[in-house]
Amino acid sequence: MPRIPLTCPPGFLGRYIVRPGDTMFRIAQFFRTRLEALTVNNPHITNPNVIFPGDVLCVPGLIPFPCCVMLWPRVIVPVGTEASAFVHTPSTGGEAVTVAATLPSPTIFGNYNIYLATVLIPEIQGGPGNVLFATPENPPTYATTIDIPLAVRITPNTQVIIQPFREGEGISGPVILEGSLGSCR
To answer: Tens digits of per-residue pLDDT, 77-112?
Structure first.
């Protein structure tokens, strides 16, 4: 009979159902948390060396993924300007956000020559970003994948933004598209 917690402590409000072959160590690695933290936050599992498929564990309360969200205009944009952000686990593990967008030339927003996508994680005052690369068709599709550093986690209050940028001078333009990963819930 599966063991299910009555409640989960703050910070571990997510739920994970144990699958065949899982170990507490492997689950801790997957959720990038310490084994000790996983064990302490699951007192209904009396022996962490013995877990069974169907057991439910309290895990760090993060967004479920894979997940896809739309990015919405923050300024007036040409018709057909749209983007999405796909949150997933890359083959290297951890978390990543792939952004794909149909965008006009960045020069439409001023003296800019590229686009940047940034994952804003409030707990770290900013976040990682990457240049969006254009495909050759017209209009181009811009895309990039942003690997999230292992030291941080994507949370429901994480935002994904796209803005034009002046390469070489380090000047950012206005945020033109934005989406909240909180809608992944």
So the answer is: 999 999 999 998 787 767 899 999 999 999 999 999
Show the domain range for 82.
67-184
CB 24 within 8 A of CB 35: yes
H/E run at residue 24: helix 24-30
Q: Is the pTM of this model over 0.90?
A: no
Per the structure, how many domains does the chain have?
2
Phi, then psi, of 124 in degrees rounded to 5 = -120, 15
The CATH number given to whatever domain includes residue 93 is 2.60.40
Residue 106, class by beta-carbon neighbours within 10 Å (0-12 exposed, 13-18 middle, 19+ buried)? Answer: buried
Tell me: the pLDDT tens digits for 7-23?
888 777 778 899 999 99
Q: Write the single-letter amino acid at 86.
A: F
The sign one gets for the Cα dihedral 48, 52, 56, 60 is positive
d(CA 183, CA 63): 9
**49 and 73 inside one domain:** no
Cα of 94 vs its chain's centroid, Å = 10
Contact 66, 87 (CB under 8 A): yes
Residues 26 and 106 in one domain: no
Q: How far apart are CA 52 and CA 7, in angstroms?
A: 19
